[in-house]
Design goal:
With about 240 residues, the protein is mostly beta strands. About 0% of the residues lie in helices and about 40% in strands.
């Protein structure tokens, strides 16, 4: 309206940012704290102003979600995985296995509106309906949970799981040692475990125990097909 000036204030100081600070409608910039707003109307041909009632913009906190397992965790193909979220009142899960066309009900073994859901990620998925069906690699599965707090605010968090091929552990493990056990006193012996199993993109955990099998002497994690152990005592 000609001759009428509008001015919006936030917490009773002139607003900054946003759009329409001197118009009949004002849209705030992003605000992170609660604040009162009101409009001051004045006539450009004279003095005096009229101030509107104040309105309170209450900024409610979004839920802070904690999700397990953590992102980057490696799981075996076809193994059951439980995913849990805390910090909200209700939850909704979605799954992205890296290929389209799979509904959530086929990727989760539980309902997707629970705090804890279960899934069996696989390293490959069918990409057709032939017999046998064609497959596509699915090495990473992304699980996203959206949590809603008691105040109605929402937040989301995602977890990426790395899917490895199912390991094949041999029934018999062999080992070698050097030098010969008939060595001179004081010469250490190195035992080498030979493992012809397959682990895909995963890693083996080699645990060396004493003769009784009760004392752990060494633990090594790697993707190698062998592992060495040298006792800390001298050859006898």
């Amino acid at each position: 309206m000609a001759g009428v000036n509008n001015r919006f204030t936030g917490s009773f100081v002139n607003v900054t940012g946003g759009t329409g600070a001197n118009a009949i409608s004002y849209t705030t910039a992003i605000i992170n704290t609660s604040m009162y707003y009101q409009c001051e109307i004045g006539c450009s041909f004279g003095v005096g102003t009229t101030t509107s009632n104040s309105v309170f913009a209450d900024i409610l906190p979004a839920p802070v979600l904690t999700v397990t397992p953590t992102t980057g965790t490696s799981v075996c193909s076809g193994a059951n995985v439980d995913l849990s979220a805390t910090g909200a009142l209700s939850y909704l899960w979605t799954v992205n296995p890296g290929t389209s066309g799979y509904p959530i009900v086929s990727l989760l073994t539980t309902r997707n509106n629970l705090a804890t859901v279960s899934s069996r990620p696989t390293a490959t998925l069918a990409s057709g309906t032939g017999a046998p069906p064609a497959t596509v690699a699915s090495p990473t599965w992304i699980y996203t949970v959206t949590g809603t707090g008691a105040n109605g605010c929402t937040s989301a968090s995602s977890v990426t799981l790395n899917v490895i091929t199912t390991p094949v552990v041999p029934n018999v493990l062999t080992y070698s040692y050097a030098p010969s056990t008939n060595c001179a006193p004081g010469t250490p012996i190195t035992f080498t475990l030979n493992n012809n199993g397959t682990i895909g993109a995963g890693q083996w955990v080699y645990n060396w125990y004493d003769q009784a099998g009760t004392t752990l002497l060494q633990s090594t994690t790697n993707a190698l097909s062998n592992d060495d152990y040298t006792p800390c005592y001298s050859c006898r």
